[in-house]
């Protein structure tokens, strides 16, 4: 289930999709496990990985993380992994059905927000159910951010 998570659940954030909160209006955030090979885990523990252009999709009642880049492990041998392979996300069947319905019926998108290690040392993906923003929504967000920055500057100066 989509449960509210405290920020203390994240021990080490490996990759973050900072652009996602600007390009999409986030509806619900899910925590999903990710099926990785040994060299992928080692590469993530070294802080390597990029999910800037990645997305998730539902295929055959499974959710897959597409286009996430986890570079090859530097000390890996012939068993090293493919950097941009599709990776299976591990969610409850009820959650998968809910996400599948939202993507198909409501035209929403599954966007990975971050990859991190939880306190037990497991790699997790913060997956958001989101709807794409229009250009005018993005301009509005920029105006709001600039106003907040100016307001903070004015309050600091005139204390």
Compile the SSE list and pairings:
Blueprint: E1 12-16, H1 20-23, E2 24-34, H2 38-45, E3 55-59, E4 62-66, E5 87-90, H3 93-106, E6 109-117, E7 123-132, H4 135-158
Antiparallel strand pairs: 1-6, 2-5, 2-7, 3-4, 4-5, 6-7
Verbal overview:
The chain is of the alpha+beta class and 159 residues long. It is 31% helix and 31% strand. It has helices spanning 20-23, 38-45, 93-106, 135-158, and strands spanning 12-16, 24-34, 55-59, 62-66, 87-90, 109-117, 123-132. The chain has a 7-stranded antiparallel sheet. Strand 3 and strand 4 form a beta hairpin. The radius of gyration is 18 Å and the shape is globular. It starts with 11 loop residues before the first strand and ends with a helix. The model has no long low-confidence stretch (mean pLDDT 86).
């Amino acid at each position: 289930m989509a449960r509210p998570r405290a920020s203390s659940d994240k021990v080490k954030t490996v990759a973050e999709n900072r652009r996602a909160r600007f390009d999409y209006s986030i509806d619900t955030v899910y925590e999903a496990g990710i099926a990785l090979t040994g060299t992928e885990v080692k590469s993530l523990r070294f802080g390597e990985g990029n999910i800037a252009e990645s997305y998730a999709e539902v295929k055959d009642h499974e959710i897959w993380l597409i286009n996430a880049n986890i570079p090859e492990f530097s000390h890996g041998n012939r068993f090293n992994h493919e950097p941009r392979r599709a990776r299976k996300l591990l969610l409850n069947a009820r959650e998968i059905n809910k996400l599948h319905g939202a993507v198909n019926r409501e035209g929403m998108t599954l966007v990975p927000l971050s990859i991190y290690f939880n306190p037990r040392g497991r790699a997790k993906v913060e997956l958001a159910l989101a709807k794409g923003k229009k250009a005018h929504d993005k301009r509005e967000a920029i105006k709001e951010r600039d106003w907040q920055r100016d307001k903070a500057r004015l309050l600091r100066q005139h204390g």
